[in-house]
């Protein structure tokens, strides 16, 4: 590209590097104020669970929704890193033998394989805890009101009324197939809640109006649904190599998905509809929202 | 007792009932704002892990250190409930087969026995997350500055530089016996950090001076050490029935304790010394500090 504006992919990659670099610093060996010590093995396990070259899609959404509303980029980066800690903790625990029992993630051994189960449990616990530390720490350039708002929104998105609750529903779904409404709730909690938080966080960081915040939440809802549909399509079609993890597991376990219920071409049309609705929500922001709109399309079309 | 002042035990019991009652409300089935749904089984598991008639010593320390410095009792109750969620999450995860593998806690089946392992992992995760929700929620009558301070202090006390880090050191101690300094660090992290937070929280809730906050932290450190010494003595001497859980396990696993290192009578003298130092730290507060001083003595002398 000779154009001065970097491509969407270039911007995503560049932001991911900034998040990766901040996470590496945050997970350094030196104890912070009021910490007693940082046990090396636990820290290694946390780093293994986090510093894995992920796409950092959630931090990207925080950064871009913050930029849309003229918020502070440094604050967005720290909140994005905190959110990524929550996302990665959920993967570490989800991979455990008692949960999904996965040995591979992004082509690497999962934390309980590379270390052991107990260390993986504690590494997940520590990453979750650290997310709230990162937001509340003096280094995050936000007001206490904004920090409190972010802590509350993140806790709601990731707790028993959000992501963790969604994982509990997912476990139950292996025994009792949920109906369509049940699948929608499960997915809105398990994957939707954190994506919605990522978008809403931008509005909090930018101290935006109630209207903007509501709009960003709605945008997050649409792309959260799109994310899950795309995931279900991938699980059906992609091979394990492209995903860097086991695939086809949902079908093998008889887990209901909307794709299984309505078919692939319905899902593709639904994805188009969700992206169009997401784009519609961004209309008031005009050209400034190009990147977020591209993100919606990227989420719907991703092949890994 | 016909005296108008309730005894220490009566006060401890009364406060525990208030915490139990608040926790039962907080763990009710109705989703809060921005929560999507509360899956019943997960909520049951959380309640099983929390509503177990514990002594609620940590919330009591929050309440009494807050009262000492004339802080808001309602705020202290909510922060105490949040802290109890963190304490109980750590027990739920600590009891897991991959960790201490305990089937009994307070005479009841542990969460992974009453439910299953996956649900116990998620219940622990959800309790930890909910602690930060409870502090940050609008219902907690504190300023955003106080809430941010509490979130940060609690995250530091419970994360990889605090309690979770202490548990990682504890796992390692089963393979490589730590020296005395190692044991002290392990215990300061595993049990000391949350007790210190409980006392410091009172200073934050009461918006106390830096001096008061430092003094309460130091008091928390002393009684945290006393708590662990008393625990080690109990593990050596009590029978399983009095504790409501398996005992003598530390010795069986070859885990080093200061009691094992220096003997029982040294430990009893050391406990006396710690209580005296804790009381000394309360001297500037005069008669107002009677209850906290009694708490220190209770912790040192407890037999269950």
Automatic annotation (TrEMBL), chains A, B:
Record PROSITE patterns: POLYPRENYL_SYNTHASE_1, POLYPRENYL_SYNTHASE_2
Cofactors required: Mg(2+)
Listed GO biological process terms: terpenoid biosynthetic process
Organism: Sinorhizobium alkalisoli
One cellular component (GO) term of this entry: cytoplasm
Record key words, sorted: Isoprene biosynthesis, Magnesium, Metal-binding, Transferase
SUPFAM superfamilies recorded: Terpenoid synthases
Domain of life: Bacteria
Coiled coil: none
Pfam families per record: polyprenyl_synt
Protein name according to UniProt: Probable farnesyl diphosphate synthase
Family indicated by similarity: Belongs to the FPP/GGPP synthase family.
GO molecular function: metal ion binding; prenyltransferase activity
InterPro entries for the chain: Isoprenoid_synthase_dom_sf (IPR008949), Polyprenyl_synt (IPR000092), Polyprenyl_synt_CS (IPR033749), Prenyl_diphosphate_synthase (IPR053378)
